[in-house]
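re: ur question from earlier - yeah i can do the single chain one, its not a big deal. heres the input i used so u can compare w yours
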Amino acid sequence: MTKPAVILLSGGLDSATVLAIAQDQGYEPYALTFAYGQRHAVEIEAARAIAAAAKVARHVVLPVDLRVFGGSALTADIAVPKGRSEAEMAGDIPITYVPARNTIFLSFALAWAEVLGARDIFLGVNALDYSGYPDCRPDYVAAFQAMANLATKAAVEAPDNDRPYLRIQTPLLELSKAQIIAKGLALGVDYGRTRSCYDPTPEGMACGTCDSCQLRRKGFAGNNMADPAPYR
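and the output i got, formated as tokens:
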């Protein structure tokens, strides 16, 4: 019997790894990607390629245009920080933070999971190499899971000995970027399909100097290999 699970699939390195992990654990993946008006919309096409290669049960690309609110370098006409040091990246929450993004995404994923009868949502957040985003922390994940088990019919009606009924699975939470890549390579992830840059060219070439590119390249260097994604 297959176990359905909703996988948040951005098209980036982390979410592609999480998809492979979920499949390796025997889950039937339902992939959910958001077209939220992001500057790096090339990741949406990457998500489509990843989902097709993985033969997911269904892949939904959901439009939720967060440009209406702005407030982030990814959704408004604000410059993406480039060439920051590790100390700077570990400092304040950067302007690439999209207000409440993971809460918005997880809420949609939760609704779909309940419709599917799925008990698991997989999310590729990481508490080590995470650029300081508040919605990538273990406390946040635990709080959302607690809320999900209070807010859904399936969880409320579950027997007491079967709780938590809904689980937010974050298998990358305590891994470095190098460890994530190593795990994905062992599972056969083709990282050449993934895209992570916050400010790519119109052709989809990565800038190489934004926070996301730097963390990604460091992870591949930690595995003694070059990043297979295209850089300008």
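The chain has eight helices and five strands. not sure if urs matches, ping me
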